[in-house]
Design goal:
Keywords: Membrane, Transmembrane, Transmembrane helix. With 61 residues, this protein is mainly alpha-helical. It has two helices and no strands.
């Protein structure tokens, strides 16, 4: 699935949450989406747990 389709689905989910559930539901869906994104990156191997605790100038490339 292309990133454009993923972005469209995420935007639609946030739109539905905002329309039907109000601003609180919008924030909840956005926060859970961000958590899901980070977990997905961990599972794909794109991120390591130590990346969050290393200073920016010491990151591996």
């Amino acid at each position: 699935m292309s990133m454009a389709v993923v972005g469209m689905i995420a935007g639609m989910a946030l739109g539905f949450a905002g329309y039907f559930g109000g601003f609180g539901a919008f924030l909840l869906v956005a926060a859970l989406g961000a958590v899901g994104f980070v977990v997905g990156r961990f599972l794909e191997g794109d991120l390591e747990f130590g990346d969050f605790f290393r200073p920016r100038n010491e990151r591996r490339r």
